[in-house]
Design brief:
Order of helices and strands: EEHHEEE
Structural class: alpha+beta
Largest sheet: 5 strands, mixed
Oligomer: single chain
Low-confidence stretches: none
Length: 75
């Protein structure tokens, strides 16, 4: 399933394996928190985010630059 997330005035596609609305809400919370308290590599990935793939309790953040792509835990 594909849905869209509005984050930092950008629309980002989010791909899910199931229709878990809590995962979308948790993703938004985690991204905002990591943007302020995360390490520089994570901040760089979030600032150049082009899509997110959620599988179970993990979110893979796909960045504009492939080497910046990271996987984070939502819970």
């Amino acid at each position: 399933m594909k849905t869209m997330l509005l984050f930092q005035n950008k629309t980002i596609p989010v791909y899910l394996t199931d229709t878990n609305r809590q995962a979308i809400d948790k993703l938004s919370t985690v991204l905002n928190r990591k943007l302020t308290t995360g390490k520089n590599a994570l901040k760089k990935c979030i600032s150049s985010l082009i899509s997110v793939e959620i599988i179970g309790s993990e979110a893979t953040l796909h960045s504009l630059y492939e080497r910046d792509t990271l996987t984070i835990s939502l819970y």
